[in-house]
Design brief:
Layout lengths: L1 H24 L4 H15 L4 H11 L5 H21 L1 H19 L11 H10 L1 H9 L1 H10 L12 H18 L5 H20 L2 H25 L3 H30 L5 H33 L1
Length: about 300
């Protein structure tokens, strides 16, 4: 696993270096390309939540999967309702939770710090995903936030000095987390950080996020799931693909139907932005909650 993740980071880092200048020489429908990647590679890394949900129910002595599906869907639906009612509050919470999630899930080794220290370090590490586009592509990033009815980052506190400080802390947290690890793992953490910087320096925010989300975060998480399904990569990959296709397909259809509905009220690009980010939020909250509950209860047993 360590060698695979290290090679993955090297490939991703070089991919970022190559794809960034290439983008400047071509012209294509950016938002549709990003939507396609998110609906396929992006969403698929969470499409095994039903299997994890079954494990969690077994720990509680419950065998009715309908309980898991109803709870998961209700949580997702609740996130959408609260977002529409309190966009600033819910999106801010989502960004904080997402930063922690990105920081933890992209760390391919276990790390234990003092009480709440590890959680805070994971948050700082993952905050680069949000702070990099705000610093390097501020106007374009704020345009996306305006579409989402979010205005918090327009406050004076989020000036260049603050954003640079957060990025420095993000890099330092990566170095601290990997302090006692071998050179490969330290190099992996540094490459991941600078990959984000390269992407956001050259590319529009939505494309930079999509490439990170699909080709680093999602693939890395998928690799761990593949080895959970089978100790050998190829058999595990076949099992992974067969299991993720149904839920990925269903989720993709729901996203597309949502875009079709919202297209009656907004411009198509705006409808897609809303569905991408509100949709990801509605999936991220129950996904993280499931991961947390499963981790905590497995430790007890």
């Amino acid at each position: 696993m360590e060698k695979i993740n290290f090679k993955h980071s090297i490939i991703f880092f070089n991919f970022c270096i190559l794809v960034s200048p290439i983008y400047l020489m071509i012209n294509f429908e950016l938002i549709f390309f990003c939507l396609f990647l998110i609906l396929t590679l992006g969403i698929s890394h969470g499409a095994l939540d039903n299997i994890k949900g079954k494990k969690l129910l077994n720990l509680f002595g419950c065998k009715k999967m309908i309980a898991f599906y109803l709870t998961y869907i209700f949580t997702s639906f609740l996130v959408v309702i609260f977002w529409l009612k309190f966009p600033n509050t819910v999106l801010l919470i989502f960004l904080i939770v997402a930063a922690y999630h990105f920081g933890k899930e992209d760390t391919v080794f276990s790390f234990r710090g003092k009480f709440l220290m590890s959680e805070f370090l994971y948050f700082l590490k993952g905050s680069a995903v949000i702070m990099a586009p705000l610093l390097l592509k501020r106007e374009e990033t704020n345009e996306i936030f305006k579409i989402l009815n979010f205005s918090v980052f327009e406050a004076r506190i989020f000036n260049d000095q603050f954003l640079i400080s957060m990025l420095i802390l993000s890099l330092l947290s990566s170095l601290y987390i990997s302090n006692k690890k071998n050179t490969n793992l330290k190099g992996l953490m540094v490459m991941d950080f600078f990959s984000l910087i390269i992407l956001n320096f050259f590319l529009p925010p939505i494309l930079a996020f999509t490439i990170y989300f699909c080709f680093l975060h999602s693939i890395r998480h998928s690799i761990s799931l593949i080895f959970e399904l089978d100790k050998s990569f190829k058999p595990g990959l076949k099992k992974f693909i067969s299991k993720v296709v149904p839920l990925t397909f269903v989720t993709g259809i729901i996203f597309l139907l949502s875009i079709y509905f919202l297209d009656n009220f907004y411009k198509l690009d705006e409808a897609i932005y809303k569905v991408i980010f509100i949709g990801l939020a509605s999936l991220t909250f129950p996904h993280i909650l499931l991961e947390y509950l499963l981790e905590k209860n497995e430790k007890k047993t």
